[in-house]
């Protein structure tokens, strides 16, 4: 695994790359990719950082694991490659945007367009073995991505953190509430959404209102 990460992040994360846990993580990931089919492709593992540079971060969305089906994961949480069928959570995200903002449901499930506007689409675990959800958890990725959240909290201002579901909400302890905005709701997965914990959260219009208040350009969701 090459740590192919945009230079804007390096001054803040270099210390993590030099820690023993990160060397062990790199060795684990390399071995997994050699022995098994894993996602996303090796050159997309750090896609979230390469598409959203540090100084551009306005919004952070936290996912858990990459998708583990063929051709789905592209290194951005909740996002899939062009032309790939939209997974259930992504369908519910687009449905909420439709009702919240009146934006037509999009053909493409590739959220790179969000990343390039300053939305950091961060999974807590950046790799996974094919068809085995959670297979790369507790190997060091969470230590790294927690450090990323703390870095944004410490060195950026007025970022909107969207914490969807129980797992993401636990990350609240890493964020300085005095400097940033935190919106929480249920997860967009059908299990949570169909029980009334997702639809109607209006997180997309609320995020844009918060960005406008601090003179930042709203996101074209």
Automatic annotation (TrEMBL):
Location of the protein in the cell: Cytoplasm
Does the record's keyword annotation contain Transmembrane? no
SMART domains named among the record's database cross-references: UDG (SM00986), UreE_C (SM00987)
Q: What is its EC number?
A: 3.2.2.27
- What SUPFAM superfamilies does UniProt report for this protein, alphabetically? Uracil-DNA glycosylase-like
Q: Tell me the keywords, alphabetical order.
A: Cytoplasm, DNA damage, DNA repair, Glycosidase, Hydrolase
Per the record, the similarity remark reads: Belongs to the uracil-DNA glycosylase (UDG) superfamily. UNG family.
Q: Which organism is it from?
A: Seonamhaeicola algicola
Q: Which GO terms describe its molecular function?
A: uracil DNA N-glycosylase activity
Looking up Gene3D superfamilies in the UniProt record yields:
Uracil-DNA glycosylase-like domain
Q: Which PANTHER family match?
A: URACIL-DNA GLYCOSYLASE
Per the record, the GO terms for biological process are:
base-excision repair, AP site formation via deaminated base removal
Principal EC category: hydrolase
Function comment: Excises uracil residues from the DNA which can arise as a result of misincorporation of dUMP residues by DNA polymerase or due to deamination of cytosine.
Q: What is this protein called?
A: Uracil-DNA glycosylase
Q: Which GO terms describe its cellular component?
A: cytoplasm
List where this protein forms a coiled coil. Answer: none
Pfam families reported for this sequence: UDG
Q: Per the annotation, which location comes first and is thus the protein's main one? A: cytoplasm
In what residue span(s) does the Uracil-DNA glycosylase-like domain sit? Answer: 50-211
* Statement: the UniProt record of this protein carries the keyword Cytoplasm: yes
Taxonomically, the superkingdom here is Bacteria
Q: Which InterPro entries match?
A: UDG_fam1, Ura-DNA_Glyclase_AS, Uracil-DNA_glycosylase-like, Uracil-DNA_glycosylase-like_sf
Catalytic site? 65 (proton acceptor)
Reactions that this protein is recorded to catalyse: Hydrolyzes single-stranded DNA or mismatched double-stranded DNA and polynucleotides, releasing free uracil
